[in-house]
Amino acid sequence: MRPEDIILAPVITEKSNDGIQTGKYTFRVNKKATKVDIRNAVEKLFEVKVLSVNTISVKGKEKRMGKTSGKTSDWKKAIVTIDTNPSDMKYLSKGGKEVKVSKKYKDSIEHFMGA
């Protein structure tokens, strides 16, 4: 699946807006997507470093219109925690020399809530 097919829309609620300050963003995702798929899609689309992904399967609600009753469709929600303070990574090369790798990660998602 392409990243655009995995991340469907942001979930904008009061509770999800409170999580933005701590680096937690909530998305409506494809029901067949796994946590690894969601992680890779968010990292590719928004150029951020993802620390963790929590998923929730949301059951549809019973709705009624006059005599007829029906049910809204089930959907999947993902709460993605990003690294708000990305730092350079250091590791040792073959000769024992320390090598610093600096990848340019963003510390927030600007496209969220039209910002």
Structure description:
With 115 residues, the protein is α+β, with helices and mostly antiparallel strands. The protein has a single domain (3-103), classed as Alpha-Beta Plaits, CATH 3.30.70.330. Helix content is 19%, strand content 37%. The longest helix is centred in the middle third of the chain and has 12 residues, at 35-46.
What's the arrangement of secondary structure elements?
Blueprint: H1 3-6, E1 7-10, H2 14-19, E2 24-29, H3 35-46, E3 50-58, E4 62-65, E5 68-71, E6 75-82, E7 89-92, E8 98-101
Antiparallel strand pairs: 1-2, 2-6, 3-6, 4-5, 7-8
Helix content: 10-25%
- Could you say which overall geometry the principal axes of the C-alpha atoms support? elongated
Give a quick account of the main beta sheet: strands, pairing sense, barrel closure.
4 strands, antiparallel
CATH secondary-structure class: Alpha Beta
Going by helix content, strand content and strand pairing, the class is alpha+beta
Q: Mean pLDDT, rounded to whole units? A: 87
Sheet with most strands: strand arrangement? 1-2-6-3
Indicate how many domains the architecture comprises.
1
Low-confidence stretches: none
